[in-house]
């Protein structure tokens, strides 16, 4: 009887130890392991983000060095963002795009905004030794007529032009073209008014 009692006591103790081990495992070890895995993932993510940012800075510095040593790059920038307002050049491009897309231009209005002075971080001149100069804007209000497709191509031509043109407003109305004895009315003819903003660098 004593032997059986000892055996039963051993089984109970072993069961209690196993239960205690399971409690410790699920209550302490599993949460700690999960927390370690989470921290490990965060660390790897932060390391990858740091490496990515470091590569971006390196690429930007490389591009700046290439830009400063390449005159053709500065010429392209001057075409996209000219020095000075160059209103006549902008109008010539607008009329050229209109002619190429079959759009009629009846009237244009121009308003220019002066360059906003920007103070340098060190208190010196903002333009001295800097590739980024203060910019101003010129706004063109253009009105005319054309088919829906030609007006769509006109807008696409403006937004993909080498000089930066930003279309900020557009209105369309059906053109009142009456039919004649020799020509039927064209339902695909519209009058348009579009506002386009372009930008320029300080001289």
Distance between the termini: 109 Å
Average pLDDT figure: 80
Looking at CATH, the homologous superfamily of the largest domain is: Ribosomal protein S6/Translation elongation factor EF1B
How many structural domains can be distinguished in the coordinates? 2
User: Percent of residues in beta strands?
Assistant: 15-25%
Rg (C-alpha, Å): 36 Å
Say what the CATH topology of the largest domain is: Alpha-Beta Plaits
**Uncertain runs with pLDDT below 50, 5 residues or more?**
none
> Which percent bin holds the helix content?
40-55%
Keywords, separated by commas or semicolons:
alpha+beta, single chain, Alpha-Beta Plaits, 2 domains, 4 strands, four-stranded antiparallel β-sheet, about 200 residues
Description:
The protein has helices at 2-69, 71-80, 87-101, 148-159, and strands at 104-113, 135-147, 165-174, 189-201. By secondary structure, it is α+β, with helices and mostly antiparallel strands. Strands 1-2-4-3 form a 4-stranded antiparallel β-sheet. It is elongated, with a radius of gyration of 36 Å.
Concise structural overview:
The protein is α+β, with helices and mostly antiparallel strands and 203 residues long. It is built from four helices and four strands, in the order H-H-H-E-E-H-E-E.
Q: How are the secondary structure elements laid out?
A:
Layout: H1 2-69, H2 71-80, H3 87-101, E1 104-113, E2 135-147, H4 148-159, E3 165-174, E4 189-201
Antiparallel strand pairs: 1-2, 2-4, 3-4
Helix pairs in contact: 3-4
């Amino acid at each position: 009887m004593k032997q059986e009692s000892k055996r039963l006591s051993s089984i109970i103790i072993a069961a209690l130890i196993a239960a205690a081990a399971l409690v410790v495992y699920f209550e302490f070890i599993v949460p700690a392991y999960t927390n370690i895995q989470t921290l490990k993932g965060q660390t790897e993510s932060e390391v990858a983000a740091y490496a990515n940012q470091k590569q971006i800075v390196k690429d930007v510095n490389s591009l700046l060095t290439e830009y400063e040593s390449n005159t053709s790059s500065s010429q392209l920038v001057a075409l996209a963002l000219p020095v000075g307002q160059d209103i006549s050049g902008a109008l010539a491009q607008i009329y050229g795009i209109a002619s190429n897309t079959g759009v009629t231009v009846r009237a244009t209005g121009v308003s220019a905004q002066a360059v906003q002075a920007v103070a340098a971080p060190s208190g010196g001149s903002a333009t001295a030794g800097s590739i980024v100069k203060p910019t101003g804007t010129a706004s063109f209000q253009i009105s005319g007529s054309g088919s829906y497709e030609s007006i769509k191509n006109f807008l696409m031509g403006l937004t993909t032009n080498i000089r930066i043109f930003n279309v900020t407003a557009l209105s369309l109305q059906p053109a009142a073209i009456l039919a004649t004895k020799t020509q039927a009315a064209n339902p695909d003819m519209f009058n348009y008014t579009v506002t386009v903003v372009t930008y320029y660098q300080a001289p």
